[in-house]
Design brief:
It comes from Actinoplanes siamensis. The chain is 71% helix and 0% strand. The chain has 17 helices and no strands.
Length: 375
């Protein structure tokens, strides 16, 4: 222990630790006058205290407002929640874009999630909680679909992750398989077919053999077929296609509904067309494209994707100019704002497959211009 001379300990401590003398009952230390002179414009202690009191009061008021809002919500909760409105919205939005811009549909989905998510913090009867989790999983999955179509792959994956958590909480195997199959389409369409095949495999496993998950199983098999086809695994792709065909032919009316949550014939033909296009089986692909187009609206994204598959088949058959022109025709049928995201990605794949020696063709240059406009 260091001992100070009698009467000097407090002064040495104040000076050594830079403690103002007044705090130790001593006279002001010599260095205090120097610091005050150097500070010049330093705010007076009473002003600092006033500022701190004001800041704390403002922060407390903001915190209090949030606490009271949460408390009021908790007091208003009587142990029951009516999910009719939420479930009605899920069913309505699941029918697709219906001519609406993806941004508008995404806004609706985000609004619904913002209202439904916090309800999970409250205590509900078991069945209400399962139904709420199921609705959140469906909303999250559909939001991810829109984000995927817009080309926002990272955001889409984040939404799918939340949707899968909700499906697990709902104990809904069919919903979880659907979420996983849809999730696999993100890496599938954005350059990672091996990852897509793995996730599609998880979806098929989640679906199992239960009839209640048949639609999800068919979707998962179709996505797996596309992933294997892109990766060059022809045998696996054909096996998955056959499996998807078998399931799709036995779906109930409810499961085969033409919605984002169902697996309608149009959707089956779209996936089949993509797989066969990548397998370069142009004749078989054309049959799926024809069948899918017969079920598609004149302005929907599905029609454009099928037409782009047809353009790729023309390219595969040795006609790069014809393939590029077919792609140009497909793109120009859609408004400019609808040529971004997945549509642009699919057209860009076709352009990338055109040999460098053929990119000076007028058709190829026109396609390149459209891609640049949609970037």
């Amino acid at each position: 222990m260091v001992r100070f001379p009698r009467g000097q300990g407090g002064r040495c401590t104040a000076d050594g630790l830079h403690i103002p003398g007044a705090m130790l009952g001593l006279a002001a230390r010599p260095w205090e006058a120097t610091e005050r002179a150097a500070a010049g414009r330093e705010t007076a202690p009473v002003d600092r205290r006033g500022f701190l009191r004001s800041t704390v009061a403002t922060s407390t008021a903001g915190l209090l407002a949030g606490v009271l809002a949460d408390t009021d919500a908790a007091l208003a909760y009587d142990g029951e929640v009516d999910l009719t409105s939420l479930q009605t919205t899920v069913e309505k939005i699941s029918r697709g874009y219906n001519g609406q811009p993806p941004e508008d549909v995404l806004s609706q989905l985000v609004d619904e999630l913002a209202g439904a998510g916090p309800l999970m913090r409250l205590h509900h009867p078991r069945q209400d909680r399962l139904d709420l989790a199921r609705a959140i999983g469906q909303l999250g999955g559909m939001a991810a679909i829109v984000l995927h179509d817009m080309g926002r792959s990272r955001d889409a994956l984040a939404c799918f992750t939340t949707a899968e958590k909700a499906a697990k909480q709902a104990g809904d195997r069919s919903l979880r398989a659907w979420v996983l199959a849809r999730k696999a389409m993100v890496p599938l369409n954005w350059g990672a077919p091996l990852v897509a095949a793995r996730i599609a495999g998880q979806a098929r496993q989640a679906a199992g053999r239960a009839d209640t998950a048949a639609a999800a199983a068919a979707l998962a098999a179709s996505v797996a077929a596309r992933a294997h086809a892109i990766a060059g695994a022809t045998k696996d792709a054909n096996n998955a296609l056959q499996h998807a065909d078998r399931i799709a032919g036995k779906l109930s009316v409810a499961e085969s509904a033409d919605t984002w949550l169902g697996y309608g014939l149009q959707k089956h033909f779209v996936h089949r067309s993509q797989a066969l296009t990548h397998l370069k089986a142009s004749t078989l692909a054309a049959k799926s494209q024809e069948a899918g187009l017969a079920l598609s609206s004149e302005t929907g994204m599905t029609r454009t994707l099928l037409l782009l598959d047809g353009a790729m088949c023309v390219r595969h058959d040795g006609d790069p100019a014809g393939g590029c022109q077919a792609a140009v025709d497909a793109l120009t049928r859609r408004p400019g704002s609808y040529r971004a995201g997945l549509v642009r990605q699919r057209a860009a794949e076709l352009y990338a497959s055109v040999p460098a020696s053929d990119r000076n063709l007028a058709e190829a240059q026109r396609l390149a211009d459209l891609l640049a406009e949609a970037a």
